[in-house]
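Appendix C reproduces, verbatim, an entry submitted by the partner laboratory led by Prof. M.T., so that reviewers can inspect both the input and the predicted structure.
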Amino acid sequence: MKVVTDGDKHGAEIDISGTVREFREMSQALLTLKDRLIIEGEQEQDLFYKNVLNGIEFDLRVQKTSQKQLITIEIVRNVVCFFGPIECFEKLGQSLLNFFNEDMLPGQHFHLDYYEGNELLEPTKHELIFTCK
């Protein structure tokens, strides 16, 4: 998978591009995540995004709180990090599985960004785009 960003520190647009097979494998792994999942990124330049990131990390983080926990997204040491509870990773994994199927065409994409009332993400300044190669 290729992971690139526009580098905007006030609200980065991050593009994660891969094949249908890569997205489906990642999605299946999210459905059964036990601790964390690390995916190394391809280190190739992109025409539209100037910064190449090292990869993606999905990390289970459960805090002792009465509030509902959602996924937070950060860029840490040049890696896009998703932190959150298994329920949210399962929901994200299932959404990606439903979207990335064998009928996908290159360039079709799935947006993941925060909106009021969101049941998956904590407020974030980042916008993610999962793009089919």
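The mean pLDDT is 93. Additional entries are available on request from the coordinating office.
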